[in-house]
User: Fold FAD-binding oxidoreductase from Nocardioides renjunii.
Amino acid sequence: MRNGGVSFWWQQVGLPTPTDLLDGDVTCDVAIVGGGLTGLWTALYLHEADPGLDVRVVEAEFAGFGASGRNGGWLSSELAGSAATYAEVAGEAGVQRLRDALRATVDEVIGVAAREGIEADIVRSGVLVVARSEAQRRRLGGELTADQVAARVRVAGAVSGHHDPDCARVHPARLVAGVARVVRERGVRIHEGTRALAVEPGVVRTDRGTVRAPVVLRCLEGFTAGLAGHRRDWLPMNSAIVVTEPLSDAQWARIGWDGAELLGDEAHAYCYAQRTADGRIAMGGRGVPYRFGSRTDVDGRTQPATVESLRSTLTDLFPSLAGIGLDHAWCGVLGVPRDWSASVCFDPGTGLGHAGGYVGSGLTATNLAARTLRDLVLGHDTDLVRLPWTGHRVRRWEPEPLRWLGVHALYRLYRAADRREDAGLPRTSRIALAAHRVAGR
Assistant:
C-alpha cells in the first residue's frame, strides 16, 4: 500500500512539476495567495469579469497540492458551517439563501467543467447518508427505510437513510488540474514553487521575491496557519482517506452499490466514501485530527493507526469486504475557524481579502466563495455579497498547548458518544452535546 504521494487522485493523473516560478519582484492588479480551488476559481471569475486585470496566483507547491486535490470528491450542497451561526446575523431566511446558493453552485461547477472540457469523472447521482443506530436515525430524520437504503447500498446495520440529489461524484485532481488549465489559458499566471511568507496591504512577500498589488487575497484554507501572523486564525484539521484495490463484479453485487451515489453516515466521528470511476471504494474519516503547533503533513503521509481505523470502518460498513487490499492512503488538512463557519471577506480600505474555513465542505463552497470575492473586489452589489458568510468574523483559536489538548479531547468525546449510541442509547449522547459546546459549533 502506498502512503502519501500527495494523494491517490494525483498519482492517477501524474504529479505536476511546478512551473512559472516567481523570479524577483513584480507588480500586478490582484495577487492571490494559494493555488487551490478558492484561488483558482477567484482568478478565473475576476479575469472573466475584467480581462484587463493582471491577476497572479502564488502557490508554494503546485496548483491543487492541498485539499483541492486530496478530498473525498463530494461536490455537495452541504452547508459549509453552522446554520445557527449564520442565522445570528442573517436569520433563517439568510441561511436558506446560502443553502440555495450552494445548491445552484453544484450545477455551476458541472456547467463550467462541461463548457471547458474538464474531464473529472463527474456523475450527479446524489449522496446517501445512512443512520446505523436509533440516535443517528433521530438526528438524520431521513425519508428512507432500511429496505430502501439496502436497495441503493447494502450498509450493515443501516436503519434509515436520506438521499440528497444535489451532489455529484468528482475526481478531485482532474477537476483542479482542469480549472488550473483554464485559468492559464485566460492569461493568468500561476507562480508555482513560490512560498508566501507574509501578507500585508499591497504586498505579498515570498521566498522568491515580492509581489505588489493593490488587492491581495488570501486563499490558503488549511495552510493559513503557515503564514506569518495567522497561526491561530484557522485550525488545520486532518482528514485521511484510503482507497481499496478494484472490486470484482461479485464484490459489488454483494454490497449492492450499483450507482455512483456518494455515501456517508450520521456518526459524530463520521465517514465519507465514493465509488470511484475505476471501481474502487475511497473511504475517508478524521483519524488523528490535529498535529501540535498547527503543523501539516509531509507529502500527504498519514499514520498507520489511521489507516487501520479506516480499514475497520470500511469492513464494519461492508463485512463482505473483510480482507480486501488497500492500494493507497493519504491525508490532508482543512481549515476550521473557531466557530466552525466559513467566511468571505474583503476590506476596500486595505485591499486585503480572504475566503475559506469550509470545515470539510469546500469542493462546492470554493466556487461560491470565489464568485463572492469577485463581486466584493469589483465593488458589485449582488445577492452574493449579502450572503451571511460575507464579512463573517470570528475569534482566534487558543494558543498551544490548549488547542492541541482541546481538539484531541473533542474527538475523544465524539468517539465516546458514538460508542454509547452504538450500544443502544436511543438519543444523541450528552457527551456529544458537551463536545459541541467545547468546539464552539
